[in-house]
Amino acid sequence: MSVVVNYKILTLTMIHDGNRILLLNRPKELGFPGYIAPGGKVDFPESIVDGAIREVKEETGLIVKEIIYKGLNDFCEVNSGLRYMVFNYLVTSFEGELLENPPEGELIWVEKDQIDKLPMQDWFRNRVPLFFKPGVFELSTVWDEKNNKELNKTMKHYFEGQIEGRWRKPIEQDIKEKQG
Description:
This protein is an alpha+beta fold. Strands 1, 2, 3, 4, 5, 6, 7, 8, 9, 10 and 11 form an eleven-stranded mixed beta sheet that branches. The protein is globular and about 50 Å long.
């Protein structure tokens, strides 16, 4: 049995200002109810970072000045062939005013140490701390919807010179070792 893979490319952008972050309270009828960071689909053929910047503007009214790539979250459902690739960003500088009537839900500034008191999807709650760690992360989940079962989960955290606490060799050193 072969499955046709359907790719969905999305963004999720954490907006950070001092000790607070901007979240939206998404109503149930829009999917993923509860508090979440702005984000959404990347339009073809825009770049992924341009999609993140556009989604922030559309959902919050803010204009991104500085944005940092933080990682990739990959979700595969084996039966349907659906593969979501969510590119995660951290905004550290912006300008503008928040929308009075945002399309995705009420906008609220939340102190980082108060986030655990808010209702939100577990997958988002678990991802929040990764935005504020040095380096980038990669999360991958393989899911079997028919059996309601996680088949595989991978989490990697990469930061300058290290992967999960082990020092990486410079590429040149690795090549020299293979050659001789």
